[in-house]
Amino acid sequence: MKKLAVWMLILALILGCAACGAEEAAALKLSAPTGAPALAVATMAVDHPENYTFLDASTIGAEFQKNEADFIIAPINAGAKLFKAGKSTYQLAAVVTWGNLYFASQREDFTAESLSGADLTLFGENTINASVVLAVLEAKGLTPKSVNYLAGAAETQAELLNSPEAIVVTADPAVTAAKIKNENVKTLSVEDMLQEAFGMEGYTQAGLFVRAETAAEQPEAVTGYLTAVEEAAGKAETDVAALAEAAVALEILPNAKVAAAAIPGCHIRYVAAADAKAEIEKTVAFDPSQFGGDVPAAEFYYDVK
Predict the structure, then answer these.
(1) In whole angstroms, what is the distance from residue 188 CA to residue 140 CA?
(2) DSSP3 helix / strand / coil % (the chain, rounded to 5)
(3) Where are the alpha helices (DSSP H) in 86-150?
(4) Do the Cβ atoms of 208 and 93 come closer than 8 Å?
(5) Which pTM does this prediction carry?
(6) Among 40, 26, 78, which residue's Cα sits nearest to residue 224?
(7) How confident is the model at residue 61 (pLDDT cuts 50, 70, 90)?
(8) Is 294 helix (H, G, I), strand (E, B) or coil?
(9) Long-range pairs for 62-65: beta carbons < 8 A, 24 or more residues apart
(10) What does the domain layout of the chain look like in residue ranges?
């Protein structure tokens, strides 16, 4: 009986520690840009909205320097550049999105070949997204007549819908919404062309960063949180309906129809940073200046203890 009592006490302590760790993980705070990257944590955020802040993509870089959020989802190159410059101590814990870009047009004869000699409108001048698109075009031997830029995917989506002859680069979920609004919209996946040209299954676009102080002071909670994000991101493949419902509830996506149709094209996939290092360095090779001039140093990667 005494042995049984001891084992029951040990089990209670283990379960109590696990519950405490789960509570600590649930209380951690995250900031992320609205849109595709936020989908990685949507089913978590819908249960604890007070701990999640969704921002305009143009402001997410400032979150690193505030050093307040325990986690940040952001373009990997932005986090790497700030880390190298000494303006951020956030380490990359995982890659969560692998490219969601599309060439799109209403033109009846729209094909990859029609990109040559065309006036092409991209978004995000001097960003890694633009660098990847330009590298794909060059590798495929496609030379546009001109390349112009708008601020974001929403702006190129508007041009796509308003100009029947336009050829643009936009992103999911904006491109899926455009296709639902106008059945004449046709798309070519940049990621499919990337695989054809370079043998890459997407590129390391957005990542999950962990605050250095949080990692040092709450290692068990961080480990639990990363496990939860991996599970949440996995719903992009295992439970699209639940993820779509959460995305609409959080106003990340406008409605269930767009959400369910767009999620697969957002390429949400959780890969621990240490396991994605080689793929990150392949992405860096497209434009090292976007990452501060070179591949990230070893200390940029968060190592789960």
Answers:
(1) 13
(2) 55, 20, 30
(3) 128-139
(4) yes
(5) 0.90
(6) 26
(7) confident
(8) coil
(9) 63/31, 64/88, 64/90, 64/209
(10) 2-98+204-300, 101-198
Overall CATH class of domain 2-98+204-300: alpha beta
Residue with tokens 């065309």: 118
Q: What residues have CB less than 8 Å from 231, skipping those under 6 apart?
A: none
What average pLDDT is seen over the chain? 92
Per CATH, 2-98+204-300 and 101-198 having the same topology is answered: yes
Is CATH 3.40.50.300 the classification given to domain 101-198?
no
Which residues 6+ apart lie within 8 Å of 145 measured at CB? 117, 118, 119, 120
- Location of structure tokens 């990997």: 76
Q: What is the pLDDT of residues 211-239, one digit of tens each?
A: 999 999 999 999 999 999 999 999 999 99
- Could you give phi then psi for residue 117, rounded to 5 degrees? 80, 5
Q: Which residues contact 94 (CB under 8 A, 6 or more apart)?
A: 207, 208, 226, 229, 230, 270, 271, 272, 273, 276
